[in-house]
Specification:
By secondary structure, this protein is of the alpha/beta class. The protein contains eleven helices and 14 strands. The structure holds nicotinamide-adenine-dinucleotide (NAD).
Length: 368
């Protein structure tokens, strides 16, 4: 039986509550589909600081290094100890450190709005078609967020000049393009590459390289869109998109715009991928939302984002496509039966029943 090592880092706030449900669902999936998961839980975030005075304790990092992938909850509690400096707080000392440590260069954010949750989407129903289903693939380690020089200069006379530099190389564009084309092959086989080739040198190179890589994926339909038009099309006709491929900053913005269409942060998983070795891709899987301190510890959090992050892990790190689809199918069926956590509940919806984190998780595990 195939065995996979997973580091489960629940973190803070609602993290432990939703992680518990995701682990339950993963175990049910392993039993059904015939694989074994060795899940090692470890502290991170404020839980790490409480445990070892470090947001990413050494033992946690060691467990991650020995694992095939990381299932992450979320970290950060804004109201905790303001004397702890920024660099030691969980968002930087744990999250950014892990991204760097494991060379996570590709960020995948699927947004899927089932038809029965049409009420949770801010768009008019006629724009939602048969349901919105988009995957935003964002380059995570290049572009303007990291390019040098990056500084603010004093021009004298009270004037400053801020400089950020947008840089992409051919290999950086090629590797993220391959991730996006491979993902499109597992979906509806359409890829929209986003750039600003009418203004930016980076955009011209981006378009050329993506088009060249695309020749290796003749089964995937490729189109190019300028980023400003893409932002508009997401609102006007989101159903035209399957996979959207973006550089770092454009992806940062468009993935949040797309997320708004999904109705609730509690429904949105994400994956950050590193390099592929021998058919296995190291990945970091987490909900798109944060620690939700306002509802933590109250059995109110929606565990679906965490559960679907587990599904992404099975697909993108281990190639267990059927098992991944089994989880997504179970979520869909449970939603169709009318179970709703508070974030997706609408009292006017016929047949909807409000449930807590535990009941939602148990129902999805039972539906596998
Ligand atoms: P948040 O995502 O935690 O919460 C925003 C809103 O969404 C809240 O009303 C919350 O209740 C709701 N929400 C989020 N997830 C939900 C779920 N699963 N079910 C139901 N409702 C849900 O964002 P915030 O309040 O801006 O941040 C809180 C803390 O989380 C901060 O410390 C922030 O730095 C941290 N954070 C961490 C990550 C991460 O670990 N990757 C990501 C974002 C924010």
């Amino acid at each position: 039986m195939k065995t996979y090592q997973i580091a489960a880092l629940a973190g803070d706030g609602i993290g432990p509550e939703v992680m518990r449900e995701a682990i339950q669902v993963l175990r049910a999936t392993g039993e059904k589909c015939g694989f074994q998961l060795h899940i090692t839980e470890a502290p991170v975030g404020w839980a790490g600081i409480d445990f070892a005075r470090k947001a990413l304790p050494d033992i946690t990092l060691e467990i991650c290094r020995k694992s095939d992938s990381i299932l992450f909850g979320s970290v950060g509690l804004p109201d905790r100890d303001p004397t702890i400096p920024k660099e030691e707080r969980p968002e930087r000392a744990a999250l950014l450190r892990l991204r760097k440590e494991f060379g996570l260069f590709a960020n995948l954010r699927p947004v899927s709005l089932p038809k029965v949750l049409a009420h949770a989407c801010p768009l008019a129903r006629e724009r939602q078609g048969d349901g919105i289903d988009i995957l935003v693939v964002r380059e995570l380690t290049g572009g303007m967020y990291f390019g040098q020089p990056k500084k603010t200069e004093d021009l004298g006379g009270g004037n400053l000049r801020a400089i950020d530099t947008m840089i992409y190389t051919t290999p950086e564009i090629e590797r993220i393009a391959h991730v996006a084309f491979r993902a499109a092959r597992l979906r509806r086989k359409k890829l929209t590459s986003i750039d600003k080739a009418n203004v930016l040198e980076n955009g011209i190179l981006w378009r050329e390289v993506v088009a060249r890589v695309g020749k290796q994926y003749s089964d995937v339909a490729l189109e190019h869109l300028f980023v400003d038009n893409a932002a508009m099309q997401l609102i006007l006709k989101p159903t035209q998109f399957d996979v959207m491929l973006c550089e770092n900053m454009f992806g940062d913005i468009l993935s949040d715009e797309a997320a708004a269409l999904g109705g609730s942060l509690g429904m949105l998983p994400s994956a950050s991928l590193g390099v592929t070795n021998g058919g296995r891709t190291f990945g970091f899987y987490e909900p798109a939302g944060g620690t939700a301190p306002d509802i933590a510890g109250k059995n109110l959090a929606n565990p679906i984002a965490q559960i679907l992050s587990g599904a992404l892990m099975l697909r993108h790190s281990f190639g267990l496509n059927e098992a991944s689809a089994a989880i997504e199918g179970a979520v869909q069926r449970v939603i169709e039966t009318g179970l709703r956590t508070g974030d997706i509940f609408n009292a006017a919806e016929a047949g909807a029943r409000k449930v807590g984190t535990r009941e939602m998780g148990a129902a999805i595990a039972a539906a596998i």
